[in-house]
Design goal:
Blueprint (H helix, E strand, L loop, with lengths): L13 E7 L6 E2 L1 E8 L5 E9 L3 H6 L1 H16 L5 H5 L1 E2 L5 E2 L2 H9 L6 E2 L16 H4 L7 E2 L9 H9 L17 H4 L9 E2 L1
Parallel strand pairs: 1-4, 2-9
Antiparallel strand pairs: 3-4, 5-6, 6-7, 8-9
Helix pairs in contact: 4-6
């Protein structure tokens, strides 16, 4: 498929969305990321791909579809992908997101240490791009959820956007609390896990 030319100034961000087969039903519902960045590292142009084979699931669970799109828009804006994310991440045996604003929220939520990020991502740069499900359970920027899950856009993710260089309003965050140990690693069956 061709791409449309963009003419004129972009004062916010342009997201190119494509619906196409990715990996069949289940598996990866969608993916997204930034393509072009301003000199301050914020995104000017990004892309999202939505799996054509998962559209029946999205039509049956529109709230879930909204969460998947919000998650991928987070990636387009730099959560998990891009220069400002990379400068806020420490990679190693236990990778962390080191942004000051997000870590302040993590501490307010009762977190200990620095925000852990998932170490199993398939990032081309080798830098993990999701919050750790072991710590955060179901939150908009953890990588797996299903149609019956609630994945709030928490103050943690909103504050991380501030760490990436965006102006944010924390009052727009959705209610969220760190899960207890029994619920953080929620067991799922192969039929209800969706990755994004």
């Amino acid at each position: 498929p061709g791409t449309a030319a963009i003419t004129g100034a972009i004062d916010d961000v342009v997201i190119d969305v494509d619906v196409q087969a990715i990996d069949g039903p289940g598996g990866a519902d969608a993916n997204g990321g930034g393509c072009e960045f301003r000199t301050d590292g914020t995104t000017i142009l990004g892309t999202m791909r939505v799996d054509l084979d998962d559209l029946p699931t999205f039509l049956a669970a529109p709230a879930y579809f909204g969460d998947v799109i919000t998650h991928e828009m987070g990636h387009v804006l730099g959560l998990g992908v891009g220069p400002n994310w990379n400068t806020n991440v420490t990679v190693g045996a236990a990778p962390t997101f080191d942004g000051k604003a997000a870590n302040g929220i993590f501490q307010e939520l009762g977190g200990v240490g620095v925000i852990p990020i998932r170490d199993a991502d398939n990032s081309s740069a080798g830098i993990p791009g999701h919050w750790s499900e072991d710590t955060f359970g179901l939150e908009i920027m953890t990588p797996e959820s299903g149609p019956s899950d609630v994945t709030p856009l928490s103050a943690l993710s909103v504050a991380a956007m501030a760490d990436l260089g965006y102006g944010v309003d924390l009052t727009n965050a959705e209610a969220y609390g760190l899960p207890g140990p029994a619920t953080a690693s929620k067991a799922k069956t192969a039929t209800d896990v969706r990755s994004h």
